[in-house]
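Predict structure. Chain length: 604.
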Amino acid sequence: MAPASPSRLILSRRDLDFLLHDWLRVDELTKRPRYAEHSRDTFDAVLDLAEEIAAEHFAPHNRTSDEHEPRMVDGRVELVPEIGAALRVFTAAGLMAGAFDEELGGMQLPHAVAEAALAWFKAANVATSSYPFLTMANARLLIAHGSREQVDTFVRPMVEGRWFGTMALSEPQAGSSLSDITTRAEPADDGSYRLTGNKMWISGGDHELTENIVHLVLAKIPGGPPGVKGISLFVVPKYLVRDDGSLGERNDVVLAGLNHKMGYRGTTNTLLNFGEGVHTPGGRAGAVGYLVGEPHHGLTYMFHMMNEARIAVGMGATALGYTGYLHALDYARTRTQGRSPAAKDPSAPPVRLVEHADVRRMLLQAKCYAEGGLALGLYCARLVDEEQTAEAGADRARAHLLLEVLTPIAKAWPSQYGPVADDLAIQVHGGYGYTRDYPVEQFYRDNRLNPIHEGTNGIQAIDLLGRKVVMHDGAGLRLLLSTIRATTARAGGTAWAGFAADLEVAVDRLGAVTAALWSPGDPELALANASAYLEAAGHVVVGWLWLEQVLAVEASADPRSNFAEGKRAAARFFARWELPTVHTRFDLLESLDRTVLDTPDHWL
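Prediction complete.
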């Protein structure tokens, strides 16, 4: 068998087409006014363009940017030139503007199609892709919560790709505990603010890739409420912007250092100092910032960007796991080693790795994680389309509530199991897997960051169990469970009735366990084992999406193709190997186990 072409080792276009058209039926969105100018032809053209640019301009320098990390030279960041060249092609093709309004220069693509297109870049080169993806999320926050002037001043250049954007939340002493941030914003006479403080772990925080960088910065206005209720949000550009849109003097935002991480090495990750007096715009110390929305509502606004970023992190973890799986599959189909256990002749030629049962086990496991994660991410993107464009208000509200419940799962489940898919890819490669002769070791290193990005998986677990499944008196959880049960009901009487019945049992237990955890009225006890809850809930959700996929396969135009049979095999694997594991977690949760609560730190 001939080696796969480079783009076929990045993602599966066949799978994307199946998920978008056979399952999610994105063509139906073209009946809505927002997408009326589109058709399947335009959707396919965007996916074709994304595949081509990802393969030709992003993938080739993935290893180069990993081996040659950003350097700080005389207070500036130096990057390998291929990063800037790739991003110029990306923005020139209009891909930055994909889902934005036509009025802002966008294509008004459905979010599901836009996310499918962007997945190519995350799989091809997650580090280079992070610059535009942060920018898109930054721009969408300002569209939702900024003033018209802020949209015209800052969003339009970002949509055009001339400026990039960041989110600046964490501080060295606070980490994820945002209530403890100390960055201050003092009101100035002209209506702006002057910010002083330090921000840590700021991806894309400094570079020379674009004319300007638009930072969205969390800070506290003196005299505001304590904790998170006193946090406000500010636009702080690297260069100030004159009334005519041209760039003015340098703002007092200074690169203090670079963080060097195990993955995503082509993405600058920075420590930024605001208002330390290196630059004094207007002759006064402090970085000039502009308040977004109302004072003391900054964290609410920032969650608009954070929630988008969380789903994007999940998609990135899926994409990295997917490309790792495809590389392992290609290797297993071409590398010969060993013989069948039934072979008696030691002089017989060796067989391909894929002919060994245990290698097929690893590939099936990686496949069910990768393709299950992709289905989860695209389903969430489809919910965004429903939330924004469904005709009935009840349908929009339903999509919003379901998306709220699924967001922590959409971030954390792929971030946990995408790296497992890459770990399996290394294992399939054997001794070559952990060398740099093959790219799977980099995929794993890149992917290992995702369980920490945009709120650790532990934080997502607390968000899911502590907020999302109990909000509105449990309405979100009830909606999720009823949505899954609608699918299991459709599967009754089909070849997948057994899978559906097992999934029904898991759904019932998820509801019962949630109630059991909260019945003692002890939040500390309820949340002590939240990570086990998230893992179990995530597996139930992905099991549901696998059942959805195989039902779509049965109704497809070619239900007996190798592709369709592969979907069935992966669904069977998930049903028999993965779904049963939720009950061990449910048993632990129902027991209200106190092991971690009752273990003092001096025993550790």
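Summary: The radius of gyration is 25 Å.
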